[in-house]
Design a protein that fits this description.
single chain, about 600 residues, alpha+beta, 5-stranded antiparallel β-sheet, 8 helices, about 15% helix
Length: about 600
């Protein structure tokens, strides 16, 4: 009966269409297009021979399949939905797919029900990032917390948002200083209610109470930041919340971190004395005048005269220098200088990437500690990061540097008349920041700064120091190693190697490069007894950023980098040249630049 009713409907439909002027061929074409099956001339025979009619009915999308009066009166939307249902359900492939989806949905619901019945906690939905409330120590929500970690001159402040950024408030637990640096200082509110991280009266340091530990002890008893951005550079976990690591890192000067002091109780060789002294018969280290500490690994500085504070030009900014003594006496310093605009004041180094010109200038002095005066009539050399050395074989002066304002490689210039004239620069290595060691046979060991090294954790940077060999022929380039293997496992930059009066070699370097913080104790010292082929574990904190004066005062800068030792004629160290930045108002009574980070 079912097939007969459907056939009747089809006949009536065909009759109506013929009355409307359509022939059988056009109807068959329409059925072929909608149903997706081959058109048949005898539709009656097709439905008559079908047992169930399921597959055959899927090829027709014309009249309704029921003669119920209520269904005949259904609206167009209902009819369309009913036709879609028939198209899906009466197709075997679609029907199996639908049943599979329903089964999967039922299983998902059942698993969720069982988990709820077993008491497993439901996952808490994360709030959208724009709805999360950030911790803010500022009294007014229109101000944002501005951190000045490790800047001795400035405290944390709350900076106004929007266009009025010159306005500021002090965070909770701090008070204002009346518009003078450090602008906000800590208030002693007691240990139970203390909201700051620092001594009372010191620069304001605010710490998020929910933040994880951020500091750890480094080599030599130095407390440094253990976490930071980018994560691929900071490899380690913090253990302390304060920048002094709760004073638990120890003091290498007292032997707290020197192995032989605790194990053997006495030194056995000069290597135990960092090759900066000798091991006496009593098992103690007798340090050279320029070294100190139980193992002589720390540099010993005498106070400096404010009137002889190295080199400080009134118009041009500088960043470190290299000093060589002439045969006739006097000292010549080759300075890495940022050429500021003519007639202006020092412009600092905050715009290194956009500065128009970086050059190496000459400054001279009759005293090793200065003051050094800029040689205005001397010819400036385009480049930066100079390192000048006297060849032990020929007596010529070799000046290594990075070319151009951005560097990126190493070049060498040779002078046969003690700097009166220089040969055309020659590129010797694609590596940057050169620290050459000139040997008696005319060859050179080139130490340089490498990036992206796989240093052993924990570390705060992937910048390290590597080395390569250079031939005796000055016209040939140094070997370009395929892998930049570090000379030791600690981060480093700005290598400088010198030979002492015993024939031993020492390396001074920046042990806390790039993003390592704080940089107060970033001075590194390593030593070698085989001509620089292998090196000791470095002493981190061998020198810090504090400068002591002969009048009994001192100043602490944010960083001290690019160390280079001046060695006397007898091979003994005389003085160290370095670059300092972030110093208080004390060098000539001049302010720092607007960023508060780089001293001009």
């Amino acid at each position: 009966m079912h097939c007969q009713r459907r056939i009747g409907n089809m006949r009536r439909s065909s009759s109506r269409q013929r009355k409307g002027g359509t022939d059988d061929h056009s109807e068959q074409s329409k059925i072929f297009e909608l149903g997706g099956t081959a058109a048949s001339k005898n539709l009656y025979e097709r439905y008559k021979d079908s047992d169930a009619g399921d597959d055959a009915s899927s090829s027709y999308d014309g009249a309704p399949s029921s003669s119920s009066k209520g269904r005949k009166d259904a609206g167009p939307l209902v009819l369309r939905a009913r036709r879609m249902w028939h198209a899906v359900w009466h197709n075997r492939r679609n029907r199996h797919l639908l049943l599979g989806l329903l089964t999967l949905l039922a299983l998902t619901i059942e698993i969720s029900r069982r988990r709820t019945a077993a008491g497993s906690p439901a996952k808490k939905k994360k709030r959208p990032s724009f709805m999360r409330k950030r911790w803010n120590p500022c009294p007014d929500t229109m101000y944002a917390w501005e951190r000045h970690d490790h800047e001795p001159r400035y405290g944390d402040v709350c900076r106004a948002k929007g266009r009025e950024k010159q306005k500021f408030q002090c965070p909770d637990g701090c008070k204002a200083t009346g518009g003078e640096a450090p602008f906000c200082v800590n208030v002693d509110a007691g240990e139970e209610t203390k909201k700051t991280n620092g001594e009372a009266g010191g620069p304001c340091r605010v710490r998020n109470p929910a933040a994880p530990a951020e500091y750890r002890c480094d080599y030599g008893g130095v407390c440094i930041h253990a976490v930071g951005t980018p994560r691929e550079q900071f490899r380690g976990d913090g253990r302390f919340h304060t920048s002094d690591c709760d004073n638990t890192c120890g003091d290498g000067r007292k032997g707290d971190l020197t192995g032989w002091v605790h194990i053997a109780k006495m030194c056995t060789s000069d290597m135990d004395c960092s090759l900066s002294g000798v091991c006496n018969d009593d098992g103690k280290c007798d340090c050279d005048p320029w070294a100190e500490g139980v193992d002589c690994s720390y540099l010993k500085f005498t106070p400096v005269d404010r009137s002889r504070l190295g080199y400080l030009h009134e118009k041009h900014s500088s960043w470190g220098g290299s000093v060589v003594r002439g045969k006739a006496g006097g000292y010549r310093m080759y300075v890495s200088e940022n050429a500021c605009e003519d007639g202006g004041a020092r412009c600092g180094w905050k715009d290194r990437e956009t500065m128009t010109r970086s050059r190496i200038s000459l400054a001279t002095s009759s005293n090793v500690d200065g003051p050094y005066e800029r040689s205005e009539g001397g010819s400036d050399i385009e480049g930066r990061n100079p390192s000048v050395h006297v060849s032990p074989k020929t007596g010529d002066w070799h000046l290594y540097s990075e070319p151009g304002p951005k560097g990126g490689s190493s070049q060498r210039m040779i002078s046969k008349d003690e700097g009166a004239s220089w040969e055309h620069p020659t590129t010797v290595s694609p590596r940057k920041n050169p620290g050459p060691l000139l040997k008696e046979d005319g060859s050179t060991v080139l130490f340089y700064a490498a990036e992206g090294l796989d240093l052993p954790p924990p570390t705060c940077s992937n910048h390290g120091i590597s080395m390569t060999q250079c031939p005796t022929d000055v016209d040939e380039q140094c070997k370009s190693p395929s892998d930049d293997n570090p000379v030791f496992g600690h981060a480093g930059d700005d290598p400088h190697v010198f030979r002492d009066h015993r024939g031993n070699h020492h390396m001074l370097f920046n042990a806390l490069p790039y993003r390592c913080q704080p940089k107060f104790e970033g001075g590194g010292h390593a030593w070698s007894e085989d001509g620089g082929a292998t090196w000791s574990t470095p002493r981190v904190g061998a020198f810090d950023s504090t400068v002591k004066f002969t009048d009994g005062t001192e100043m602490r800068c944010e960083r001290r980098e690019r160390p280079q030792m001046i060695v006397g004629e007898d091979g003994r160290p005389v003085a160290m040249v370095s670059a300092v930045s972030g110093c208080p108002e004390g060098l000539g009574g001049l302010e720092m630049n607007d960023s508060g980070r780089f001293y001009k």
